[in-house]
Amino acid sequence: MYRFLDKHSSALLVFRLSNRWFTFRMDVMAMLVTLAVTIICVFTKGMVSTALAGLALSTVNGVCVFIPFLMRMKSEFQSRITSVERIIEYAYGLSSEAPREIPETRPAGPWPKNGSIDLREVQLRYRPDLPLVLHGITASINAGEKIGIVGRTGAGKSSLISTLLRICELDSGSVLIDGVDISTLGLHTLRSSISVIPQDPVLFQGSLRYNLDPFDVHSDDAVWQALEQSHLKVVVQRQEHGLMSKVEAAGENFSVGERQLICLTRALLRNSKILLLDEATASVDVETDHLIQATIREAFKNSTVLTIAHRLNTVTNYDRIMVLDAGRVKEFDTPTVLMSTERSLFREMMSATGVTSVEQMLALT
Predict the structure, then answer these.
(1) What parts of the sequence cross the membrane (predicted)?
(2) Which end of the chain is more exposed for a tag (fewer CB within 10 A), N or C?
(3) pLDDT tens readout for residues 214-249
(4) What distance in Å separates the CA atoms of residue 182 and residue 111, rounded to the nearest whole number?
């Protein structure tokens, strides 16, 4: 909260200071004009009557007061009308998302039951006037598989994950989960069926329990069990108020590692058949990384897991590795096969970390 207030105050200070600077400049100009008219009246006193000189000075003084006021009002109007333009743009200019619910296409019973994913010629661009970021990606992911997604910066890893949540609609192609085309589903139906652990953990101001179970659908026993699985139970027990401990805005009273483990606990409670990790361990220490990976291997052994890996050693024990480059799938096979293949992109990336053989790679797991 205080961070947002500071940002608002900083912007307001700049706005006020620029207004004062503008007013000062206009006042200086008015003073110079009045001075010029006064000098003219003095040097033409034989040709200009006293009454005419007084009228000239009075008129100039009135104009010099009115024009700065008018210009100040004009500048303030321009700055204020920007807010109106933004409101109009947000109200009428932005395209809305797909419907939240579509009862006609909602799968009967729990969905997905297995967690298989089929990508068929997936192409994605963020705006109609921008180039494609994903180019015809086709891949089949079996139910329960653990898939590591690797690639250099800008390869399209996060874009691929976003297609599963329909954050951006596809330019062409389709994504099927358990044989159901996700473009036919309501967004709530789709997104509530998938768990996500992002790189930057999201926590809300309130109680710890609210952050773990915001819709209050789980018992305290289930919450404590999930905390034990994520190795956070001892940390929470040390808190004076336990599950009702206060969480500050953005979780600032917890370390980065603890915030990430809280997000992991939230995913454990949901127990979805599909889990997405978008570089979830990129900002945490190695110990927390190991805790998260161990929990995922145990708790989500029957779920399909897609992990965008920052540390390659976190996915060397996965079933398959998908290597992306410039929005295309360059390699998709087991870590052992990719590491054994000459000129493999995955092998090059592992070699850059000092791992040059299959034996060294397996020793990391």
Answers:
(1) 21-45, 51-71
(2) N
(3) 988 999 999 999 999 988 898 899 888 889 999 888
(4) 12
